[in-house]
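Lab notebook, design round three. We kept the backbone fixed and only want residue identities now. Task for the bench partner: fill in a sequence for the structure below.
Input structure tokens:
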């Protein structure tokens, strides 16, 4: 290193640490007391022959729910253990660009109908414009749709980038995603004062060029079929100038190499979704640039801060066991009223800060700089290692095996160099048979085992002793499009849950697999993540059982006059106050707490439930794994509703029925139960149950409104309300039958 000053610093967030420890002790003790109370009462109840079996059953169900909640709470505490903040000093990196290692950027796209080409190309262009030596940056776009629209749009993007990148460099533009840059209200970015008139002229020129670029991409989309196929050979192309027209204006060496990769797909071969695509990129890039570091981006996640590569290098150049630097997923389209909790605040603030103080966060899908070495798991490769062993692991390509020993081959290839033999080798590496009988997706590379390839890959790396860091600078390094369509969001999160439960129910189940391989706290956080879909069990139970009992005047909780009442009240308050404290501490308002709480309940009875069922069906062979990419095309009306905080219930009945049923059931039980309470004058012992129902209804008020009060197009469809009423009726009658018996 040129100077001895540190490249990065970390410091423990002391205030959070104190609050968290205090909370852990208080809340933990309260939970122990609750378990003692429940266990003791249960024993007393079982001894008592006069108490009905149905009451005992309800009591056991509620106790079991509380045990599950307490267990998940305990796992969740791993996130609170050692929250850290980090600062990076990219300006202290070697001044000599030759000393920087090279980086390959992998961008994945799958379907031009769901992933608008202009948006994807903005991501590509923003990556081309990263503040990094252009000869050390190589951009690979994986097109899983094998669509000629994407290839042609990429050629346009490259042509536009050839002018855009030097423009950004010249004026030190900070927002290098053209769409984001030109839609900014103020034009100070890049305006360096004295140059301002030249700058304004240039800016105008490039704005026009950008508009033309968009028009051309639009034109391509209109003229070319956006058909995506699952049956096509591999096609790899280094993007270059075809018509040589304005070649003189920019020197090609000023911009990074851009490569289009569409791997071979055949219906008879599993293609393993995004992880499969990334592994093909790993192999293809090993022939062309073989950079030791890789930045992975989803197609809708553009580079918002060009210095992210240098920031990541501050960590990578300083540690040998570091597998990846993860940046948060932040989004450019979050409304103040983020009713669907699309921003995933709870993951990318407090939780990831917390695990950063352990051995680092898990891979979070996109926005991370990872080392090739960690992905290949080849830190021990010596030149004399058995080649046949390497071929067993990495497949039959000798060229690929050779690349394992070569760090950093290649500068940019000229057209002639992209010779026939190399072409053939690359085609072979991108073919679907290549991985047969190898360790791709298993021991090496992005792992296939689960559709949440990110979670599982991260877990595998950490269990091999690799570490990671979380870099969360004030200026977001990457900005993506959050899923703000309620329907898409539910489908997306169901897929995540399926993937997580796949892991939870396998031999890789974190509490079994992780403890021998990593610290107990780290195992706990992997476990909490994989097991959180199981929240569906207590949520279903606590939204039905106490309510049915309320209706029948059966108390399940201590009455107000019972000293244990305070315990229950304390647990309720302390968990919510902690949640509120977390929300406020990151600058959000109480509203965020309500949004998150509401979505947690809704997702528990839909996404978590269906995801768990899906994973079970896959396990017993009744279903195949699938990964439908989320639709990133915004629907104007739907977007307007999201922005004004109005729920859009144009969602399949399958997703509406569970929450509507529960809401109707709670309304019925609360109203009828209240009548009963007045008649029997037993408010004391029914108080908690009545409060629980009331609380659920307050939190789920938009659902009540959507069913009863709203008249617009996006209300809960009447058919769904009727079906839910019917289901609630069935639940009520069944419950009554059991309870009366
Ligand atoms: O067969 C596929 C499916 C998806 N993708 C790409 O994978 C990315 C993520 O897909 P998306 O539909 O946006 O899914 P999300 O649920 O939004 O993705 C989140 O969750 C995934 C794991 O389920 C992670 O891989 C992502 O990084 C993370 O943003 C996109 O760029 C897709 O083009 C492929 O390349 N091939
Ligand atoms: Mn996405």
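Proposed sequence:
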């Amino acid at each position: 290193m040129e100077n001895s000053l540190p490249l990065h610093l970390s410091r423990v967030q002391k205030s959070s640490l104190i609050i968290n420890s205090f909370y852990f002790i208080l809340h933990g003790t309260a939970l122990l007391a609750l378990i003692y109370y429940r266990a003791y009462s249960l024993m007393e109840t079982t001894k008592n022959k006069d108490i009905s079996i149905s009451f005992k059953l309800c009591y056991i169900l509620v106790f079991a729910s509380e045990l599950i909640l307490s267990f998940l709470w305990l796992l969740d505490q791993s996130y609170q253990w050692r929250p850290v903040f980090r600062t990076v000093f990219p300006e202290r990196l070697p001044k000599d660009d030759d000393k920087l290692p090279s980086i390959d950027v992998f961008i994945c796209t799958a379907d031009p109908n769901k992933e608008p080409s202009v948006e994807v190309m903005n991501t590509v262009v923003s990556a081309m414009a990263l503040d990094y030596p252009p000869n050390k940056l190589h951009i690979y776009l994986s097109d899983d749709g094998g669509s000629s629209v994407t290839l042609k749009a990429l050629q346009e993007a490259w042509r536009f980038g050839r002018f855009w990148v030097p423009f950004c460099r010249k004026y030190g533009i900070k927002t290098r995603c053209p769409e984001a840059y030109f839609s900014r209200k103020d034009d100070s970015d890049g305006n360096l004062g004295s140059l301002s008139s030249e700058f304004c002229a240039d800016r105008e020129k490039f704005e026009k060029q950008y508009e033309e670029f968009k028009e051309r991409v639009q034109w391509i989309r209109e003229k070319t079929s956006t058909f995506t196929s699952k049956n096509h050979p591999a096609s790899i192309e280094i993007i270059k100038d075809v018509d040589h027209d304005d070649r003189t204006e920019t020197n090609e060496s000023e911009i990074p190499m851009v490569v289009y990769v569409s791997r071979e797909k055949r219906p008879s071969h599993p293609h393993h979704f995004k992880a499969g695509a990334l592994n093909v990129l790993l192999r293809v890039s090993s022939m062309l640039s073989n950079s030791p570091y890789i930045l992975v981006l989803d197609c809708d996640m553009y580079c918002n801060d060009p210095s992210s590569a240098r920031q990541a290098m501050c960590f990578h150049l300083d540690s040998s066991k570091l597998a990846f630097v993860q940046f948060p997923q932040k989004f450019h389209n979050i409304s103040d009223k983020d009713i669907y909790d699309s921003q995933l605040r709870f993951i990318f603030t407090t939780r990831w800060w917390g695990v950063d103080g352990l051995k680092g966060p898990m891979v979070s899908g996109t926005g991370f700089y990872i080392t090739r070495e960690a992905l290949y798991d080849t830190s021990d490769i010596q030149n004399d290692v058995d080649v046949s062993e390497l071929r067993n692991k990495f497949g039959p390509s000798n060229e690929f095996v050779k690349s394992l020993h070569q760090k950093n081959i290649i500068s940019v290839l000229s057209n002639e160099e992209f010779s026939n033999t190399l072409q053939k080798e690359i085609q072979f590496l991108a073919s679907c048979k290549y991985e047969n009988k190898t360790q791709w997706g298993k021991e090496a590379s992005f792992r296939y085992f689960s559709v949440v390839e990110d979670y599982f890959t991260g877990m595998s790396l950490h269990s091999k002793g690799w570490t990671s860091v979380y870099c969360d600078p004030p200026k977001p390094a990457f900005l993506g499009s959050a899923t703000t369509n309620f329907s898409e969001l539910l489908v997306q999160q169901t897929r995540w849950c399926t993937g997580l439960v796949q892991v939870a129910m396998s031999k890789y189940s974190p509490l079994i697999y992780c403890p021998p391989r990593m610290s107990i706290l780290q195992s706990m956080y992997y476990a909490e993540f994989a097991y959180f879909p199981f929240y569906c069990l207590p949520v279903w139970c606590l939204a039905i059982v106490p309510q049915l009992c309320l209706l029948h005047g059966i108390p399940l909780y201590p009455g107000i006059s019972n000293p244990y009442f305070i315990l229950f009240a304390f647990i309720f308050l302390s968990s919510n106050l902690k949640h509120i404290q977390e929300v406020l501490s990151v600058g959000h308002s109480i509203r965020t707490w309500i949004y998150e709480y509401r979505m947690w309940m809704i997702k528990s009875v839909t996404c978590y439930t269906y995801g768990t069922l899906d994973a079970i069906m896959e396990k017993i062979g009744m279903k195949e794994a699938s990964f439908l990419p989320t639709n990133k095309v915004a629907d104007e009306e739907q977007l307007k509703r999201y922005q004004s905080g109005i729920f859009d219930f144009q969602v399949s009945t399958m997703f509406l029925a569970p929450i509507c049923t529960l809401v109707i059931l709670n309304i019925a039980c609360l109203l009828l139960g209240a009548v009963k309470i007045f008649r029997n004058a037993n408010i004391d012992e029914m108080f908690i149950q009545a409060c629980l129902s009331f609380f659920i209804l307050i939190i789920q008020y938009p659902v009540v409104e959507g069913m009863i009060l709203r008249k617009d197009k996006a209300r809960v469809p009447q058919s769904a309300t009727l079906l839910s009423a019917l289901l609630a009726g069935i639940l009520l009658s069944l419950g009554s039958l059991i309870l009366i018996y």
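Keep this in mind before ordering anything: The mean pLDDT is 92.
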